[in-house]
Amino acid sequence: MYLIFASAYSMNHFDLLFWTLGAYVILGILKNDDPKGWLLFGLIAGLGLQNKLSMAFLGFGLCVALVLTRNRKYIVSKVDGKFRLGLYLWGGGALAVLIFCPFLIWQALNDWPTIEWVGKSNAAYGNSPLVVLLSQLAVGHPFPIALVGLYFYLFSRRGRPYRMMGIIYVSILILFVMQNAKSYYLAVAYPMLFAGGAVLIESFAEHGYRRALKPVIVTALVVITGLRLPFILPVLPPKQLLAYQESLGLPSRGQVPLGLADRLGAEELATEVARVYETLPEEDRKESVILAGTYLEAAAICSARSPKLGACPVSTAGLAIRTCRSTSAASRNAPLPKSGRSGNSSFSVDPALSEVSRPSLAHRLSS
Question: How far apart are CA 87 and CA 74, in angstroms?
Fold first, then answer.
């Protein structure tokens, strides 16, 4: 999962960075009992929110963990019989909100479109609670180390000062299960569990015959990662990948895994879309919209955009998000047509943002 995040330019690998930095700062605050660190955490959280809203889940887990542990002293403490707010924690929260304000203002001025988008996305592509739970075995690879880390934070004596880190993870997991969230959303929370697991495993394998566990664990990680690598990165051509998949006894059904397939064939897709677009009469092109099945398809068309597409806007099906437009002022200000029909080619953007089927883009345009 982390190789996917780190090898494709998107907000996801920055999200991983901000979550890890945030967890690192929290661990430092707990270790040194230094409340001033909350100001740094607020800075990281604010920047993380500007990158991706999922940083708010870390804030949610943090609030739950603070309330359920003795670390609530950072929220409010009793000094000389009087209650006093933890100024550094509240100051860090205010700093995060201040950095995040431009986004909130834009949302308020545009009727909060992201809230509607998230609801539609989870409804269309979310997972059942069981799938969210079981998929963590793959999302949190190496999951055994993450599980040891969770034990370290929640139950071990050495991890007691950092107990709230385990509560942060559990509270976010419960929230995702209740919301039928996408499984990979929790991937950014695992580095802090890996850290706890590594500490416990290293202390266990320090003496005697148990030292042999270290090279065994490292070797197992390298081998497992090597076996999974072709499914994560485009290191094999599609035909060889399918053959490799079948050699492992995994059914391929003649299809490249979705997460990898989305990273292949951008130029071919853009060329095919342009070819179909050119078959439309000139007048109908002005009223056309290209509907991609996912924002990844839309991004592929935009990144390898053919000049033949001109100012034709590209949108994602169902969510009606304007992914890319021509740089001309006229095309930027032109509204997306609600519907249009040309001969035997049709294009539509549902004004109610209702769900639509997701056949291939080229098939949709040419059918």
Answer: 8
The dihedrals phi and psi of 218, each to the nearest 5 degrees, come to -65, -45
Predicted confidence (pLDDT) at residue 14 exceeds the cutoff of 90: yes
Residue 358 pLDDT: 30
Report the alpha-carbon distance of residue 325 to residue 251 in Å, rounded: 40
Classify each residue of 6-19 as buried b or exposed e, where b means 16 or more C-beta atoms within 10 Å of its C-beta: eeeeeebbbbbbbb
In this structure, how many other beta carbons lie within 10 angstroms of the beta carbon of residue 158? 12
- Provide the pairing of β-strand 345-348 with 339-342: antiparallel
Domain ranges of the chain: 2-228, 234-261, 266-366
**8 A C-beta contact, residue 176 and residue 126:** no
Nearby residues of 35 by Cβ (< 8 Å), 6 or more positions away: 29, 74, 86, 88, 89
Backbone CA torsion sign across 137, 142, 147, 149: negative
Residue 141 CB neighbours (<10 A): 19
Tokens in use for 178? 């209740």
- What CA–CA distance (Å, rounded) separates 60 from 98? 18
Instruction: Kindly report the pTM of this predicted structure.
Output: 0.77
**Strand positions, DSSP E, the chain:** 76-79, 82-85, 290-292, 314-316, 322-324, 339-342, 345-348
Structure tokens at 42: 């607020």
Q: Each residue of 20-59: pLDDT tens digit?
A: 999 999 999 999 999 999 999 999 999 999 999 999 999 9
Q: How confident is the model at residue 304 (pLDDT cuts 50, 70, 90)?
A: low
